[in-house]
Fold this sequence. Notes:
The protein has eleven helices and 16 strands. It is of the alpha/beta class. It has a domain of 202 residues: Carbamate kinase (3-Layer(aba) Sandwich), CATH 3.40.1160.10. The strands form five sheets. An eight-stranded mixed sheet has the order 5-10-2-1-13-15-16-14, with helices on both faces. The chain has a two-stranded antiparallel sheet with strand order 3-4. Helix 7 packs parallel to helix 9.
Amino acid sequence: MSIDPSRGIAGLKGALRYVRAYRDQTFxxxxxxxxxxxxxxLDQVAAQIAxxxxxxxxxxxxxxGGPQASALTRRLGGEPRLVAGRRVTDDQALEVVKMVxxxxxxxDVLSALRSxxxxxxxxxxxDADLLTAVRRPxxxxxxxxxxxxxxxYGHVGxxxxxxxxxxxxxxxxxxxxxxxxxxxxxxxxxxxxxxxxVSEVLATALHAQKLIFLTGAPGVLRDRxxxxxxxxxxxxxxxxxxMASGALVGGMRPKVEACIRAxxxxxxxxxxxxxxxxxxxxxxxxxxAGTGTMIVGRKEKxxxxxxxxxx
Length: 311
């Protein structure tokens, strides 16, 4: 079968306006546990990140690793507990997430990027006071079953501040920071913090143009069992209604909550896409159709749709 070179040229021309718009802009890309669990999938994501970096886009990569932490907990004889998509972190669970997030997975991501000639630097939120957190007090939480209970999340932190100077320094030198989702406080305590929240906080602090979640789902679905119900475009009001309806459960809830906060905190566009799909990141960034769900604030929605808010 012959290959039509004109199609490739047409694609390059179509992407040119995006390349011009994104040069020297900051993107925060969050890698989900489903993406990290497959070496081949991680490699193809690293190749896409390499291309974005080569085009002059400033990148920060954030990761957690929930499935891997759960797997190691079980290997050690424990059983992980998650409530409303968030991990309860006792003493043993804290040791596990430190080993998995800042250790094995951070190095795996760095290695994948290095194989594509990306100079990346591994960090956690503990480094250079990047993320400051306080221990979360017991809170009332409504779980996915609709039951409200008081939950003590243990060594889970709520982020109270971010100092992105280390990230700015690295990006200015064309390094790609890779941040594991841990945070600290002034007393030397280490906290497990939700990677979706870390991504949103850093994107806001860096005035990022885009926050992109690479997940194991096609995006936000009105019916989680029906991929055809994908919500391709939404604003915070749309998503708040979906959450109230009970359509967003499990790990999707923290992602959507993070997107809402980012979209209302100055991040122009946020995206939730399936990172396992070949070239999903490039398709989302460089084509109008995209591949998943794009979430924007009210002002950006008006700009995107060409609506005059004064009308």
